[in-house]
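Ticket reopened. Same input as before:
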Amino acid sequence: MPVARTSLPDLAERLLAGDKRALGRAISLVEDDDPEGWALVRELYPRTGNAAVVGITGPPGAGKSTLLAALVGHARARDREVAVLSVDPSSPFTQGALLGDRIRLVDHYLDPHVFIRSMASRGSLGGLSEATLQAALLMDAAGKDDVFIETVGVGQAEVDVVDHADTVVLVLMPGSGDSIQAIKAGVMEIPDVIVVNKADHAGADATVREIRAALTLGPPRERDVPIVRTRARSGEGVDELVERIAEHRAWLIGEGLLEERRRRNLAGEVIGLAAARLRRRLERSLADDPSVVELLDEVAARRVDPASAAEQLLERQS
Amino acid sequence: MPVARTSLPDLAERLLAGDKRALGRAISLVEDDDPEGWALVRELYPRTGNAAVVGITGPPGAGKSTLLAALVGHARARDREVAVLSVDPSSPFTQGALLGDRIRLVDHYLDPHVFIRSMASRGSLGGLSEATLQAALLMDAAGKDDVFIETVGVGQAEVDVVDHADTVVLVLMPGSGDSIQAIKAGVMEIPDVIVVNKADHAGADATVREIRAALTLGPPRERDVPIVRTRARSGEGVDELVERIAEHRAWLIGEGLLEERRRRNLAGEVIGLAAARLRRRLERSLADDPSVVELLDEVAARRVDPASAAEQLLERQS
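Engineering reply: fixed in the latest deploy. New output:
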């Protein structure tokens, strides 16, 4: 492996200089769970923490990618370096369903100051969340001013994927009854900014009212959650959204909460990484380790209970 | 602890005899993560595997609990022993929002052949999923013919909670656009039976059509997913739902798939249990262990990267 070893510092250097291809290569390494990728993040980590990281989440079809394209355009108009990480937990056979959305980012593909990357989940959300974080750190180290992490989902696990963000934006649309119910029931964590996209569609007013009602149910918050109406395709409302995101960031900094939030996010991520790694090790052992297969046979035969089997697995990992 | 020790076999015996109070006490033990609870499940595990376990999932407000009350009534009419486990991941302050649903099960509270239990999540879904499985096993050992596990949620993690089930029923309603989009995009796993509840509401036909369209996008399945229209409050469609659930079970058994499915579920659960336990241990160490706090300080100061910190944590667990 001496060739790979000597190329690592070179890759790091090119990445720090903002080289798009180096950044792409580095992200592939962490996505493939290549030890070189982890070594790279380890080396570059002290150079991170400068980017404003914005997470965009919401149900499929709400128009997140169109909105993202508009946000990228905005940032570029202010001459900011931008990276977009689209996390797509859909199964391989339905990629087409989301492609329409993704395509709207194409305008920015040729801009040397915009880096766009998709990451598809084939495994557990834990593993994906792990790779997402590493990729975001690499983008940050590469000198991006704005890092947008987009994730498709309607549950808590999907919201967790954007937990690395300084600001979390939830994008809904008229018809997002399930997500609003989830907020109302306290099943989904409250984001920092809520967008009602497709605001020209019937029912947008009702949707805004329902969201407002859902937000009043929770405990008193340090800060009201702004609701922004947008029409991402026409660009309507995007200025306001940019402003609301900036206000949230200014508030975090002004109150001295940015470091606190990042510390909390990082603690969650370290634990999440550890649990995801253990889970992956165990999943591998299911395929490779005859003694693990035997243990599961005993569980299936109702001779060893699942919790005892789990304990045995944990002990063997030691 | 000699008193507790001698009471354990006694508790097991009463539980096996179908004593409701013993079952309630046993579930409290696993919910409180009491070692006695785990010991009990260990002892009773060989006596499990007889119950038909049905998972009911879907967004809040879809009417799952009303439907459950109807299913329980049906089972009781056939003289079956029934247990219901309601898993509620909502935050403490919004309990009221769901109470309306829960109350409909009250009719069955006084029936000695029906055991109803709610479990609220205060921590991670992993931990909740862990306790859910143990509780379901205890219900199974207590001689219940039907065990219904109900979970509130709109994402994959919530669907995972019902992974212990032989048959998974997804309950939607007109307005469940987000959930349908999630199926369409391949973000949510396909259940065994889909219910459109509140089928008298406007838009029910459109919802059924959308679900049908979403189902055609996936890969060919071994079995078509039936869509049942219900009005849980009036009882309309419940007969058909009972029939569809029974058909799914008969199919699993006829094709020799029940054991395979249970084996797969159990494997996932053993790994899930191990990962959840590790995660909890790590979370505790965040509060208790000064060296872990110090490690996280280093991460926050960008001196140790998250993945290296995770590795260090995993090594320390050994």
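Chain A touches chain B through 82 residues (CB under 8 Å). Confidence is low (pLDDT under 50) at residues 1-6, 93-101 of chain A. Please confirm and we'll close it.
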